[in-house]
Structures are given as structure tokens and as C-alpha cells.
Amino acid sequence: KQEVTQIPAALSVPEGENLVLNCSFTDSAIYNLQWFRQDPGKGLTSLLLIQSSQREQTSGRLNASLDKSSGRSTLYIAASQPGDSATYLCAVKNSGTYKYIFGTGTRLKVLA
Amino acid sequence: NAGVTQTPKFQVLKTGQSMTLQCAQDMNHEYMSWYRQDPGMGLRLIHYSVGAGITDQGEVPNGYNVSRSTTEDFPLRLLSAAPSQTSVYFCASSYSEDSPLHFGNGTRLTVT
User: Between the CA of residue B36 and those of A105, B29, B39, B64, B85, what are the distances in Å?
Assistant: First the structure.
């Protein structure tokens, strides 16, 4: 059974710092992995989607990597800003299923 | 484009009452799904649809019904509300299984 873990649950960093958020999964037979951002009281916004054949994806200051063999993905945020404060979730879809399994997220606070 | 629209934003029900959570998307997406988000548990899939007329159960389908008569709409029906169904409900859609998920802003449901 696929399980997704995100550690730490919460993180505070000063503005300008580069940071890495972690996502680990137990079953390496994934189809794809998505990183999302969730602001309080809002829905999720997809940031990056990595297919199983890809190693990384980049969008602006964000870079997501995928290592299927070790069951890990990281989201790298460069030069963090207060506007990056939000909860970041990862979700994994296994091959042969539509179902996404979500982690419980990392709550990020970037201090001005 | 409005994206994914969910109504209502908030709802309070008494145990045993029934209601329908509405979800509509204007992006011509084939895939639609319903998730519930509970503290410490991440998002869990309730039901999903891969096209009009086609629905299937997710991880936690008991107590909920869905139908998909049009591409645009995917309502979620609570048959007889229970306090355990107190949660935030999110509707999501995607163009294909390779595409990012688009989420609505959620419905916060309280069952007393």
C-alpha cells in the first residue's frame, strides 16, 4: 500500500534563504508525482508535475526532483519570500490507478 | 475561465440530513474527483470519474454517492449525514491522467 510522508510538518526560515522540502513514498511503481501549494482556506494549486520517466521539473524559483529508486522527491525553493508562506503537499499516483495518495504537507513560514 | 467552482462554501447539517455538494468545471476536463481533507490525514479520494457516465469509488466512498451526467458537473451527495463526515471537501479536475490537478476552493461541512 502506497504511503506518502512529508517531514518536517512545519518549517520557519528567514527571507532569502534557499530551502528544500522533502517527500518520501513507499512504493516506487509510481506513474507521476505532483507538488501543490495550499493557502489557508483555499484549494490546492499544482506547482510541478513530474512523470515517472523524468528526474526533475523547474518553474521559476521552484525545482522538483524525483528519485524513484529511493522513494524520494524534493521541492527546492530558491531565494524564499514571505509570499511563499503556505502549506506544500506532495501527491503520488501509482501506475494503473487514478487515485492520488497525498502527504500531510509541510507548513512553511518565510519571515520578513 | 472560472476553473473549478464549488458550492456552497460552508454548510452545517444535522445528523441524518442529506445534501448535495456541487462541483462544476469549464475547462472541458474529462477527469473529475472528490477529496476530503481532515487534520493530520491528508487528502483522501472519495469518488472519481474519467468521463461523462463513468464513475468509480476511491479510498473512502461509504456514505457518499456521485453521478456524472455531463462533462462539466460532478455533484457529491451525502445520503444521511454523520458527524464523521465533518470535513473540508475538495473537487478536482484534470484534462488527462498525465495532467495537473485543478482544485476548487472547497466546501467546509459541519455535521452536528
Answer: 15, 20, 10, 11, 9
Long-range CB contact pairs, A40-45, < 8 A, 24+? A41/B105, A41/B106, A42/B105, A42/B106, A43/B4, A43/B90, A43/B103, A43/B104, A43/B105, A43/B106, A44/A89, A44/B43, A44/B90, A44/B92, A44/B101, A44/B103, A45/B103
Our separate counts of H helices and E strands in chain B read 0, 11
Which of A53, A77, A82 has its CA nearest to residue A64? Answer: A77
pLDDT in tens, chain A (112 residues): 899 999 999 999 999 999 999 999 999 999 999 999 999 989 999 999 999 999 999 999 999 999 999 999 999 999 999 999 999 999 999 988 888 999 999 999 999 9
Q: Which residue of A has its CA nearest to B45?
A: A99
Question: Which residues of B have a CB under 8 Å from any CB of A?
Answer: 4, 31, 33, 35, 40-45, 48, 50, 56, 58-59, 90, 92, 97-106
Measured CA to CA, the distance from residue A65 to residue A73 in angstroms comes to 5
> Can you give the C-alpha Rg of chain A in angstroms?
13
Q: Do B103 and A44 touch (CB under 8 A)?
A: yes
C-alpha cell recorded at residue A109: 513560514
Residues 1-30 in A contacting B (C-alpha not used; CB under 8 Å): 4
Q: Is A59 exposed, middle or buried (0-12, 13-18, 19+ CB in 10 A)?
A: exposed
